[in-house]
Structure of Methionine adenosyltransferase 2 subunit beta:
Amino acid sequence: MHPWDCGRGEIANSSLEESARQLLFLLSFRDCVWERGREREMDRKRVLVVGGTGYLGQHLLQGFLEMEGKPYDVAFTHHSSPPQKLLDAVSPCPAFPVDLQTGQGFDTISATFGQPDVVINCAALSIPRACETDPDAAMATNVPSSLVKWLSSTGNGSTLLIHLSTDQVYEGEKSFYKEDDETIPVNVYGKSKVAAEQFIQSNCSNFAILRSSIIYGPQTISPVTKSLPIQWIDSVLSRGDKVEFFHDEFRCPVYVNDVVATILTLTKNWTTDGRQIQLVLNVGGPDRVSRFQMAETVAAVRGYDISLIKAVSSSSVNRGVRSPADISMDISRLVQTLNITPIPFIDGVKLTLGPAAGS
Ligand SMILES: NC(=O)c1ccc[n+]([C@@H]2O[C@H](COP(=O)([O-])OP(=O)(O)OC[C@H]3O[C@@H](n4cnc5c(N)ncnc54)[C@H](OP(=O)(O)O)[C@@H]3O)[C@@H](O)[C@H]2O)c1
């Protein structure tokens, strides 16, 4: 063999060994990165928003997706077809069809998305008049028995269920209800919500029930069809006609981002410290306002003629459903437990109708 050939062979052998060493190093480095990625993936908590197509649900999805570092895998459910605009905006969040009345759809979520760590139930028949006309549908939708059954059949009872309830669980005969006051609903919607609360308290070990007042704020990514309270007042006042508003019906309207902040904080606390909770919270704004005062505030923000707003008693109109008179709420538990201070009504109205609202 020519010495030159021999030299070439040695060179070839040593560079082959070096290449093999480098390859081995790269392979083990890749496996290590892959393994770490897998661990991180397995560490990521899964959040499911039930009723993600509704008013609160859409704002909530937006809230989760805007969180710094996007720490959660988020999915949502819908009942009718999900609007394409929402699907595009929250991509790659998976969307699942679910019927709360039958429980159809939950098994597919387990199979493809996996067991969620946190479920936020925003799905409901949420219009009191609709509940009054169809009490069976109201009960079957608003009492989340299929959802709770699914959670207890697939998990180890550790999923946190955050359930949206309402101020309409209260009778409305006094001001500033506390969470421990007796619940005496006066209409089917309120009754279905009380039944839901009782069902959850008897069948779940890890839950937060949020008794929300009227939720107001900007329109959603894909506009919801139901009328939004501030936008509705704005549209009737903008016509310049005289309009009647109730002076004797009081609520603590809450800005939608404050409800979202409440839910995000509960989620963060649970996914960080893992302590089970059994919590009932009033979620309202800091101001007790009548419908008349709500209209006055909108008029003041928009510069409309306040003399067009006429104060009338709620007893002067038959709305086809009983509406509690004063269900203003004491929100000190919300403030103390989660350190959340909802914004004043006038500030929320400005944000809702201001140029940044896009409504
Ligand atoms: N908005 C308020 O002022 C207010 C005040 C107090 C309490 N709350 C409570 O807060 C929660 C959210 O309210 P919201 O205003 O966001 O409600 P919403 O806009 O009426 O949305 C309702 C959601 O429920 C879903 N849904 C309806 N029937 C269903 C069924 N049979 N199975 C599964 N999903 C079903 C809808 O799905 P599709 O859109 O796909 O049909 C939608 O995503 C509700 O529990 C409500 O009672 C709301």
